[in-house]
Design the sequence.
């Protein structure tokens, strides 16, 4: 802390006590034995409100033992982090997990900061209630995923209209033009117009396929991904190994659409970012889950860098979360491995 000279007139103890009591987070100070030696007003209010059975608000109690007495299934990593911090590992450390209390479940963010002086060690623990933020994030995620799936439905509708409407009109015009009998320059113009119609039909059909591949509905996810991947390899020159069983069963439409879009985005990322001349894509059932995996053999993830957080990855994650799935990225040395997991729901159950 950087202070002016007049601050020296204040008692350090009273000042620190006032500062800690003024913060809204629940703060406890631990000694090097992990025992609670001080708490702030917010901590005491938290204990009273949630009717926690803590004598003298936990003073003298081992904090890790206190945590183990709470119904917090995902707090084990935080407890181990605190042990490591006391053993000399660098900090500060921050964790988020859910606690189930008498008044209902809450999400908390806990921060551990170690301070040392004259061979003595203290840990300042700040415990914040982030339940509202977590609920807001979850609601936003659900809304965004719902919009993505609404977009898929609209793509499907537009693709059908292009295929069943516009493409048929162009086909009819081409047939009528081909039936015309003309001579001289008119024949040349007719041939050129017919060629333009053929080109337009090809673009309409390609656009219709990209918007919503008919193979996804007609044959299911396995054959649709195989067809898409083979076309992608032809267009890009990527040497692509495809490991998908010919008889891969059909699944619920929402799951198939989510995994198909993830496969599209992941292959596009391989081509745009990896610098890899080859890749593999696989689809298999793993117990009650289905696993889509895409691996490249390119530059991989930067050492020590956080996982990418681009729009494409966020979209893949939201699509999978909408069907109760998840996505994971890992360095494969060389390259990157993307694994997309989703519950296996047979067609008709989604």
Sequence:
């Amino acid at each position: 802390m950087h202070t002016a000279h007049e601050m020296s007139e204040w008692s350090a103890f009273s000042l620190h006590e006032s500062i800690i009591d003024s913060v809204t987070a629940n703060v406890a100070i631990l000694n090097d034995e992990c025992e609670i030696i001080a708490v702030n007003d917010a901590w005491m209010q938290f204990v009273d409100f949630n009717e926690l059975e803590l004598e003298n608000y936990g003073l003298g109690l081992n904090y890790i033992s206190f945590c183990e007495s709470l119904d917090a299934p995902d707090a084990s990593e935080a407890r181990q982090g605190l042990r490591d911090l006391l053993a000399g590992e660098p900090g500060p450390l921050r964790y988020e997990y859910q606690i189930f209390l008498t008044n209902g479940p809450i999400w908390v963010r806990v921060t551990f900061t170690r301070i040392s002086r004259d061979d003595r060690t203290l840990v300042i623990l700040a415990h914040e209630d982030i339940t509202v933020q977590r609920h807001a994030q979850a609601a936003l995620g659900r809304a965004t995923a719902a919009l993505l799936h609404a977009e898929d439905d609209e793509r499907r509708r537009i693709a059908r209209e292009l295929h069943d409407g516009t493409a048929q009109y162009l086909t009819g015009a081409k047939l009528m033009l081909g039936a015309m009998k003309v001579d001289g320059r008119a024949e040349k113009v007719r041939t050129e117009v017919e060629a333009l119609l053929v080109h337009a039909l090809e673009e309409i059909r390609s656009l219709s396929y990209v918007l919503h591949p008919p193979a996804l509905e007609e044959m299911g996810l396995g054959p649709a991904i195989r067809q898409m991947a083979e076309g992608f390899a032809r267009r890009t020159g990527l040497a692509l190994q495809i490991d998908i069983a010919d008889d891969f069963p059909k699944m619920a439409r929402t799951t198939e659409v989510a995994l198909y879009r993830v496969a599209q985005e992941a292959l596009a990322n391989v081509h745009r970012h990896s610098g890899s001349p080859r890749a593999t894509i696989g689809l298999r059932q793993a117990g009650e889950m289905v696993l889509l995996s895409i691996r490249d053999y390119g530059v991989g993830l930067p050492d020590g860098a956080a996982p990418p957080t681009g729009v494409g990855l966020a979209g893949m994650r939201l699509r999978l979360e909408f069907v109760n799935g998840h996505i994971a990225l890992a360095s494969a040395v060389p390259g990157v491995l993307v694994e997309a997991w989703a519950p296996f729901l047979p067609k008709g159950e989604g």
About this structure: Strands lie at 26-30, 36-39, 93-101, 104-117, 120-129, 239-244, 278-286, 289-296, 326-331, 336-343. Residues 136-211 form one domain. The first strand starts at residue 26 and ends at 30. The chain has three domains: 5-129, 136-211, 215-343.
